[in-house]
Design brief:
Elements lengths: L3 E5 L20 E2 L2 E2 H11 L4 E6 L4 H6 L4 H7 L9 H9 L1 E6 L6 H7 L1 H4 L4 E4 L3 E4 L6 H12 L2 E7 L9 E7 L4 E9 L10 E9 L3 H6 L11 H11 L2 E5 L3 E4 L3 H14 L8
Parallel strand pairs: 1-4, 1-6, 4-5, 8-12
Antiparallel strand pairs: 2-3, 6-11, 7-13, 8-11, 9-10, 10-12
């Protein structure tokens, strides 16, 4: 059973300056709910009720958000606005939250390694909150991946096809097709040029990782931009054990970019909030 989900949230969010000068990018709202709330909802839907955050300086708002605000509760008690807090109240009452610090921004691999103290020696999921993933008519992406893990018991990464014009922004896999949009990974490259990309299958911000990944990261040398890349650690794991790539069912918005953030806001507003539903 997978119980835990790790959220690396220590990044600076420089593409959203000046807003992120004093506000975590993960707290940017899609309509009226922060990005990180969507990610936690997705984890809880997959029965991952132990949520760990790898935070950094200036990220206290995330911890405050997943805590009770007694002053606010008192102010809106007995009013119609109480219903707006039902979703976050459920999470506060039913999910265990824990936090640790990434003192230096040394890449996603380093962020995952910083979370080892919260995970221990068990398989776990990872969510990058600025990838907003929705599947309105079925299981969420993490729930889909947990089902696959229960069958294969190996690391699983979510992938989607991207155009040549976007390929340099992602880690890209090479793999052997198996079935049901599933691939056995044979290689992966972090942010390749279009001519060097092994495929058009790009890694997005959803992972299930087996606990040996921590030891692999410890022996992974810094790669592109001098950072410890999770992609490099996963390549080593794929070559020595097994990593699967899953072409998920659903919609993904890159909310780490201005265009993706606006697209996600418009989508959720049109498809949910105008109809009085929650996204």
């Amino acid at each position: 059973m997978i119980r835990k989900c790790l959220f690396p949230v220590a990044g600076y969010g420089t593409r959203f300056l000046p807003a992120t000068k004093s506000m975590p990018k993960e707290m940017l709202p899609i309509v009226n709910k922060p990005l990180v709330h969507y990610g936690v909802d997705e984890a809880v839907e997959a029965n991952l009720n132990y949520i760990g955050f790898v935070t950094g300086r200036g990220k206290r708002a995330i911890a405050d958000y997943f805590d009770i605000s007694y002053e606010l509760e008192d102010q809106i008690a007995g009013t119609g606005k109480e219903t707006l807090l039902q979703g976050i109240r459920y999470l506060i009452n039913n999910v265990k939250f824990s936090f640790t610090r990434q003192n230096n921004m040394l890449g996603l691999g380093h962020a995952i390694l910083s979370g080892e103290t919260l995970i221990g020696q068990e398989a776990f999921a990872v969510v990058l909150a600025d990838d907003l993933c929705l599947h309105p008519e079925g299981k969420g992406i993490l729930a889909q991946m947990v089902t696959l893990y229960q069958r294969y018991h190996c690391s699983i990464i979510a992938v989607q096809e991207v155009d040549n014009t976007e390929i340099e922004r992602y880690g890209v896999i090479a793999g052997i097709p198996l079935h049901d949009d599933l691939y056995k990974v044979t290689d992966m490259i972090e942010k390749p040029s279009p001519e060097n990309a092994p495929s058009h299958l790009a890694i997005i911000g959803r992972y299930i990782l087996t606990p040996d990944i921590f030891e692999i990261i410890k022996h992974t040398q810094p790669g592109k931009n001098g950072e410890v890349q999770l992609t490099d650690a996963l390549r080593s794991q794929a070559q020595n054990a097994c990593v699967m790539a899953y072409k998920f069912k659903g919609i993904r918005f890159d909310c780490g970019s201005i265009d993706g953030f606006i697209d996600a806001t418009n989508y959720c507003y049109r498809h949910f909030y105008q109809q009085g539903e929650q996204c």
